[in-house]
Amino acid sequence: MSQPPLSLVLPTAWLPSVEYFALLLSGASILIEVHESYPKQTCRNRCYVSTSNKVMPLSVPVVKTYGNHTLTRDITLAMTEPWQRNHWRTIESAYRNAAWFIHYEAAFRQTFFQPYSTLVDMNSALILKLAGLMKVEVAFDFTTDWKAFYGNALDLRASFNEQEPIEGFSQVMFKPYFQCFANRYGFQPNLSIIDLLFNCGPESVSYLRNLGAGLLSKLSL
Questions:
Q1: Residue 119 maps to a domain
Q2: What is residue 2's three-state secondary structure?
Q3: Cα separation of 168 and 219, whole Å?
Q4: Is residue 92 included in any domain, yes or no?
Q5: 104 near 193, Cβ under 8 Å?
Q6: Looking at the 3D structure of the chain, how many domains does it have?
Q7: Burial class for 59, CB neighbours closer than 10 Å (0-12, 13-18, 19+)
Q8: Looking at the whole model, is its pTM more than 0.90?
Q9: What is the distance between the alpha carbons of residues 10 and 215, in angstroms, rounded to a whole number?
């Protein structure tokens, strides 16, 4: 008798890491936390890209609608500054010479610049768009209330907050692929999924599936 898929509880993530996206494609059952008190400076509104000045974090400015106890589901986007335009310029500068950027630019840009009402809406739309560009399907559900513990699922809500992989995982798991600035800084693992997509195109899927299988194997121990 086959075992049911591993259940994972993940944070929402903006342009999530390669590791995060590999788990989305791993076959695990995914639940995304939206009823937590929103923690700042995490993958929920931050990603990492490779630029001519090495690895750069990009952060989305957000508004805690109800103060420090605002739930992640209620976090809105601060539109008092042109952060979408500024971040797009950084992304375009970083990846305009990547082999597949020109193939995905128009479709990705359209979704990137949509006027989203909440952070969760934006993050989910971008994940679905990136999956669509890779011609794969991803499925996830959202939490319906707050739970401090999940006895039947692996809780990864506090993970994915830096470029480093999940605690206990090795960067050796991230097979090097071509990156535009690797000749200057060497291979930079576990950046935003857009780094893999713009550099590897359709080959991103097999990369993610192989990584996801390795991650699930370790998580299941």
A1: yes
A2: coil
A3: 10
A4: yes
A5: no
A6: 1
A7: middle
A8: yes
A9: 14
Full domain range(s) for residue 170: 7-219
How far apart CA 28 and CA 204 sit, in angstroms, is: 19
DSSP string, 90-128: HHHHHHTTSTTHHHHHHHHHHHHTS--SSHHHHHHHHHH
Q: Would residue 2 count as lying in a domain? A: no
Is residue 1 domain-resident?
Answer: no
CA proximity to 25, closest of 134, 152, 147: 134
Sequence-distant (6+) residues with CB within 8 A of 186 are none
Output the CA–CA distances (angstroms, integers) from residue 196 to 34, 40, 88, 142, 203, in the order listed: 27, 26, 17, 26, 9
User: With DSSP H G I counted as helix, E B as strand and the rest as coil, what are the percentages for the chain, rounded to 5?
Assistant: 40, 15, 45
Q: Which residues pair with 8 in a beta bridge?
A: 30, 154
Rounded distance between C-alpha atoms, residue 21 and residue 197, angstroms: 11
Report the alpha-carbon distance of residue 29 to residue 141 in Å, rounded. Answer: 9
176 DSSP assignment: -
Please report the beta strands in the chain, taking only residues with DSSP state E, as ranges in sequence order.
Answer: 7-11, 29-33, 46-51, 54-59, 62-63, 76-77, 141-142, 154-155
What are the 10-residue block averages of pLDDT along the chain, 221 residues in total? 76 97 96 96 96 94 94 96 97 97 98 96 98 97 96 92 69 91 93 98 98 90 71
Counting every residue written for the chain, the total comes to 221
